[in-house]
Amino acid sequence: MSRSRLPFLAAALGATAALVSPVTNATRGLRRSMGANPEGDPRVTSSPQWREGGFANRIESHVIPDPASQGSMAVDFAKKGSIGRPVGPVPLVTPDLPGAAADFGATWLGHATVLVEINGHWVLTDPVWSDRVSPSATVGPKRSHPVPLELAQLPALSAVLISHDHYDHLDTATIDWLVAHQSMPVVVPLGIGAHLRAWGVPEAQIIELDWDESYSVQVDGLPDLVLTCTEARHFSGRGFTRNKTLWSSWVLQAGAGDQRRSVFFGGDTGYTPAFADLGDRHGPFDLTVLPIGAYDTRWGDIHMNPAEAVQTHLDVRGRVLLPIHWATFDLAFHSWSAPVEWLVEAAAEHGVQLALPRPGERFGAHGAPQEPWWRPVARSSRAG
Predict the structure, then answer these.
(1) What whole-number distance in Å separates Cα of residue 193 and Cα of residue 35?
(2) Closest by Cα among 131, 101, 193, 149 to 361
(3) Angle (nearest 5°) at CA 174 between 149 and 98
(4) Quick check: 355 and 321 in contact, CB under 8 A?
(5) Which of 32, 285, 292, 336 is geometrically suited to a Cys-Cys bond with 264, CB 3.0 to 4.6 A?
(6) In CATH, what is the architecture of 104-377?
(7) Regarding beta strands 159-161 and 186-189, do their DSSP bridges make them parallel or antiparallel, or are they unpaired?
(8) pLDDT for 240-263, tens place per residue?
């Protein structure tokens, strides 16, 4: 690979050729972390989303910039310096978790990792405890802050949800630990089961779904937790082969009538008009969990910006918006705090209620954090 290609790979989220460092200091092999392609899986190849040898978005989406723009990205990458990192330690909160999950609550642990409470169930989204999202354990995008909760401090999970297989969302070492210490299902879009099987995850714990398919988790004494795989606009790949596994957003629902609680988890996605249809079919939502960072006009089809996150929240009929996919890993060219500052402006214009917790800060039904905690460690308020 030529050196001129490296900035583009980093700008494209370090996802297509990345190897995350393990939770421990032990070195894991590149081949194992890459997982496996779902060769010959009839559920994959018969999916309506499978076209011409790979999964595809329902509307045209440009993932790789044209050759002319790769030069500009190389220049931007060389000039960006440390703009994507804070100037001081990110303020963290040691999570104060209840003994049992509440009817509604959430704890953002950084990037796209959120511990959701929904009618007594604990659900963990896109868990990443590793230090880097990179081809190396020592080179590449490194955390801007530690994870505020040790894996061993997690409660008994009803499910782990994965949005897609990029390394900043599907972390081999974290999955290894969770499967070794918990018995929850790992619920994933089609094709990702091949990665999990390659890592030794028991078949009984692997649940693979296509868009618009659902899985019900049953736990004694709790209402059923229904997890629905829903459309997103993104791409996938852990090696040099793309789109052999599906990407998704997720609908989490538990309870009925006045006791019904629902959460929309966007994962990693560009904006799509399909979100309005999801709102009609599954909304309203008590909480939307939506990405706001790592945006750029050069890959705008597959990464929404903060204004589009607000529009998505309105489309799906959300009550409170929790922004994710910012502050933890430096994966684009904007400044560290630009996503959240833009979000605050856009939300105010549309009357959208935000939850702005520090990493590790839990919130529930009776109030969402609003303090601009990021400003003391930000380089600028709205650069990038």
Answers:
(1) 10
(2) 149
(3) 35
(4) yes
(5) 285
(6) 4-Layer Sandwich (3.60)
(7) parallel
(8) 889 999 999 999 999 999 999 999
